[in-house]
From TrEMBL:
This is Aromatic ring-hydroxylating dioxygenase subunit alpha. The keyword S-adenosyl-L-methionine does not apply. The lineage of its organism: Bacteria, Bacillati, Actinomycetota, Actinomycetes, Mycobacteriales. Residues 52-160 form the Rieske domain. Keywords: Dioxygenase, Oxidoreductase. GO terms for molecular function: dioxygenase activity.
Amino acid sequence: MSVLATPRLGEVLADLRGYLDDEPPALSLPPTAYTSPELWELERERIFGRSWLLVAHVDQLAETGDYVAVSVAGESVVVTRAGNGALHAMSPICRHRLMPLVEPGAGRTDSFTCQYHLWKYGLDGRLRGAPYMAGNTEFEKKECRLPQFALAEWNGFVWINLDANAEPIGDHLELTAHHFANYRLSEMVQVDSWRLEWRANWKLVMENGHENYHVIGLHRETLEPYMPGGGDLHVEQYSPWVLHARIPFAVPVRPEVLALNEIQRANGMLLLAFPASAFIAVGDQVVWFSFLPTAIDRVEVVGGALTLPELATGSAAVQRTQQAVTAMINDEDRLGLEAVQRGAASRFAQRGHLSPKEQPGVLAFYRNLAHALLRAEPTGR
Ligand code: FES
Ligand SMILES: [Fe+2]
């Protein structure tokens, strides 16, 4: 699909180009970047059609038949654990006459049966049954299979890419491995998960995730005592896909559980994967997110909280408290970002000046965005 560079889109792209300069403007995106249908179409094609997205933790796909279904910028994806132990990422759109086989969510099944005419697919996407089709000599049941997407697993995190020929994400993630070496990521178990809908453009959500400056406002009662918004973010870009940041954080340390170094004891360690995925390790807790757009002004927020197995069996009351705090912080971001989305639609809105506190992360995100949208090939290829 090609997108015509309408004047409005052309202006947004010209502004984006500025972020590729050696000295980019310390300005936020033009407000139309959050409301332009033309830009959204371009993002669907050049970003979400080609990028790696974190969609689950392996604990959600532990048993044969476990599945997680998401929508990526309007494209349905289901990830399954097949009987031979392999994970598959597929398009769950029936090959007969296009009925989606499963809605976004998670569950366990031994097959997917289309509710329209009862065609039945296995966990690897191969067609297993198609009633009354024997008389159609053109139809080859053996060749009928749901389209397969690229899939990667790294330290328990499950990633998908709609582009089956995508460059592997693992090599890029591995560049940050030394930052997370002491956290025992691969041993961690998921103790909480969520699937939320926020009414905001995905870029607003991601730039919010690239700065801690907003903690002084949106999270002043909840996070500010531990993660002061005035603390300086230290950002390292490892590849066009992967950025690491450390955020000053009063980490509750339990040296008998995790042998963290001095930096890890004083910081939250953040991995941001362009375009829309992230996780942060804070001592023995890890929280992951993916902000999957479903429309120009909607994101589905999927994510989870992980901890070490020996801590996961702690008291239910403690776990409930942690879940409540996470939910509260998520909701503070949601309320703030939904309000900003409304602000972006104002005819009087304009680009804003960025604080030095937010520049390292936000400008890195804008640069990756500009790369992905302006280059014929996406970043990292
Ligand atoms: S559309 Fe799925 S069986 Fe007909
Ligand atoms: Fe926040």
